[in-house]
Structures are given as C-alpha cells and as structure tokens.
C-alpha cells in the first residue's frame, strides 16, 4: 500500500489522491473485517427477467456534476444524485447525515487507522435525509449486472458504482473509488468523476467515458476485497419523502464518535481508535514508512474534515450551542494539525504524538456525548444550508 502513495500520472492534486488512497484502503479493510466474509449490506439479487432489449446507447440528462478535491468521493456521489433530484445540500451536510467524518476506525495497527465511519452503512442511513432511498443490487454474473445497469440508465436513473480506480487509470495498488454512471455508448460507460478537483455544474454535459469492461473489473475487485464475495454490485436511489427526524442523526453520529472496542479481534472505533493508535505509537512500533507514507495522509484528513465539521455544526445549531461543539471539533483538528507539523519537522514521535492523539480522543468522546445529549431533545426542521 505504501507504493500507492505516489505522484498521480495525470498531474492532479497529489495530496488529494494520496488521501483518497489511504482513506479507501482503510475502508476496504474495515468492510472485510466487519463483514465476516458475507454480504453484510443485504444487496438484492438482480432479477434477470426483462433485461433484454436495452437501446444501443442512452444518456441520463439533467444530472449535476459535482467533484471535490477533498477525500469525499463517496458522499459526493450521493450529493450529486440528491442535487439532481432537487435537494441542494452541502457536502458537510451529507457528511453529517451519513456520519462519514464523525467517527474513526482502527484494526490491529496503525496500518488500519482512519478518522471515518463505515461509508456503505452511512449512505443507506443518510439517504432519507436527502429525500432518497437506497437500493443495492448484486449479481454473481457480470453480463446480468451490466444489463441491469444499462436498464437503469436507459430508464433515466443514474447509478452509483464503487470500484477499484486502477481498473480505469492503471496502477499497482488497490484504490477503491466511486463514480456516478450517467449513460453508455457502445462498450463504454459515461460517468461523472466525484474527485480530484472542485466543481459544481447543474445539468452538466462534461461526462467522462471509460470501457464497461474496465468498470466491471474494478467493481469485481472491490467487492471481493470489501466483502470476501465474488460478484458485482451497484446502487440506485429512488425518491421518497424526506426524513426530518434529525435526532436519529445526532444519536448515530454521537455513538460513532465515542466508539467501541472489541479487543479479541483488534477492532476499535471512534475515540477508542485514537487511543489505541496513541498506545501503539508510544510503544515505538510504527516503522519509518508508516510515518512517511500513511500517517501524514490520515492526519491531514482528520485536520480538514474536523475543520469542515466545525463550520457546519455552528451553522446548524446556531452561535450559542454551536460554539461548544465547533470548539470540540477544532480541538481535534488542531491536534491533528500539530501532528502534521511534527511530521514535517521531525522529532521523537513516540513521545510527542501520543498525547496529541489522546487529545483528539478526549475531544471526540466529549463531542459524541454532546451529540447524544442533543439527540434526546431535538428533531431539527429541514433547512437548506447551501
């Protein structure tokens, strides 16, 4: 995995690419560890009946193209689909309702640490707060999966596909990614890329194009690594009444921030993941390549994601109550930033870094407790913050 963090051959933002690689690699490990080799997300089997007769090409019109240079590719895909359906919310809102940047994970060692929660479960949970219902479909048969995707696209429905980016771009490291498919022409899918740059274009015609074979190869690789099963999966989102019980969001995110620990399988989440990493760093067992290649990326993500959370929460809650939750996010972000500075200048990491990681853990534990308190008394109205 360390070899994967290198200069992007297209000359795009190296830091964003590296962040996405580390983020996705951890997410893959999280799913493998948590799924126990099964389809823990309950995908529906694709019904092969009625799949014949799709047109030779199709384009879904009216889709908003959104991309983000931060490592937010999966929630950005959901945001694109929601925006195209008339629900205009910021990426910070989508991160909040999915819980994407409100949590953490660690499995066994520093090589599986990241300040995120399980995005797949988060997509399903958060979609109703964007007026959407997720439908996850899967098949062991590639041809059936392709025909089913084409049927959705021919019917005017965009498709979210998670796949190994290297199947499209090349490379020798596993790079889970996501895209919004918006059509097909011959043997190619048309799609919107959610990462590497900042863009917001309603009813965009700037569609990318790549071979269907490459996409499906990437989808198969991702499913095998994520769940331990063979096959192909994709997501579509249908309109539904918009959920307004935001108390459930505060509760879920609060629990994700506080986290749990399962020692016998080496898993820790939320604040406990930060404390576990602090103990490992204090033990001096992190190799040089970990400090040089992986941890800087993860700490950078922690810094900017918590900064984004702070700005969103003070806006969501108002100045009086939002000030304290924003302060806790800023404590976490500031500690991550201090670690970044130390990595840039050098020092005795085993001595200096653990107290900063424990500061992150204390702040996120307190933030989770505050969220759970809010959940007991609030059911927020639907407010468009963008």
Domain count: the total is 2
Estimated structural class: alpha+beta
- Rounded to an integer in angstroms, the radius of gyration calculated over CA atoms is 20 Å
Which fold name is given in CATH as the topology of the largest domain? Cathepsin B, Chain A
CATH architecture of the largest domain: Alpha-Beta Complex
The strand count comes to 14
Low-confidence stretches: 1-38, 382-386
Strand fraction equals: 15-25%
Q: What portion of residues is helical?
A: 40-55%
User: CATH superfamily of the largest domain, called what?
Assistant: Cysteine proteinases
Number of helices: 12
Structure description:
There is one protein chain. This protein is of the alpha+beta class and 386 residues long. It folds into two domains: 36-98 and 125-239, Cathepsin B, Chain A, CATH 3.90.70; 247-377. The chain is built from twelve helices and 14 strands. The strands form four sheets. Strands 2, 7, 8, 9 and 11 form a five-stranded antiparallel β-sheet that branches. Strands 5-4-14-13 form a four-stranded antiparallel β-sheet. Helix 1 (14-35) packs across helix 10 (288-317), helix 2 (73-84) crosses helix 3 (91-98) and helix 11 runs antiparallel to helix 12 (349-377). The longest helix is centred in the last third of the chain and has 30 residues, at 288-317. The protein is globular. The protein starts with 13 loop residues before the first helix and ends in a 9-residue tail after the last helix. The relative contact order is 0.16. The model is unreliable at 1-38 and 382-386 (pLDDT under 50).
């Amino acid at each position: 995995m360390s070899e994967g963090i290198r200069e992007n051959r297209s000359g795009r933002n190296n830091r964003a690419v590296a962040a996405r690689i580390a983020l996705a690699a951890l997410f893959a490990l999280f799913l493998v560890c948590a799924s126990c080799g099964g389809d823990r997300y309950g995908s529906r089997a694709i019904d092969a009946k009625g799949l014949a007769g799709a047109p030779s090409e199709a384009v879904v019109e009216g889709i908003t193209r959104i991309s983000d240079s931060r490592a937010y590719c999966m929630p950005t895909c959901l945001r694109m689909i929601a925006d195209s359906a008339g629900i205009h919310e910021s990426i910070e809102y989508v991160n909040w309702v999915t819980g994407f940047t409100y949590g953490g994970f660690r499995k066994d060692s520093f090589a599986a640490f990241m300040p995120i929660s399980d995005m797949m479960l988060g997509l399903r949970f958060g979609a109703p707060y964007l007026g959407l219902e997720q439908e996850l479909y899967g098949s062991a048969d590639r041809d059936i999966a392709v025909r089913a995707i084409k049927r959705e696209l021919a019917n005017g429905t965009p498709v979210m596909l998670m796949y190994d980016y290297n199947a499209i771009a090349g490379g020798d490291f596993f790079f889970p990614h996501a895209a919004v498919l918006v059509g097909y022409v011959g043997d190619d899918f048309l799609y919107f890329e959610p990462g590497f740059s900042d863009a917001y274009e309603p009813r965009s015609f700037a569609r990318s194009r790549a071979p269907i074979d490459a996409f499906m190869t990437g989808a198969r690789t991702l499913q095998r690594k994520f769940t331990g099963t063979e096959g192909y999966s994709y997501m579509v989102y249908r309109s539904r009444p918009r959920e307004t019980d935001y108390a459930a969001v505060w509760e879920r995110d609060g629990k994700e921030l506080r986290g749990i620990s399962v020692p016998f399988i080496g898993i820790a989440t939320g604040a406990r993941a930060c404390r576990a990493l602090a103990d490992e760093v204090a033990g001096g067992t992190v190799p040089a390549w970990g400090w040089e290649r992986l941890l800087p990326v993860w700490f950078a993500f922690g810094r900017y994601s918590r900064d984004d959370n702070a700005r969103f929460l003070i806006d969501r809650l108002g100045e009086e109550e939002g000030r304290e939750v924003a302060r806790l996010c800023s404590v976490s972000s500031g500690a991550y930033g201090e670690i970044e500075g130390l990595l840039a200048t050098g020092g005795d990491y085993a001595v200096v870094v653990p107290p900063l990681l424990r500061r992150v853990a204390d702040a996120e534990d307190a933030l989770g407790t505050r969220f759970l308190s809010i959940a007991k008394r609030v059911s927020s109205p639907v407010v468009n913050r963008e």
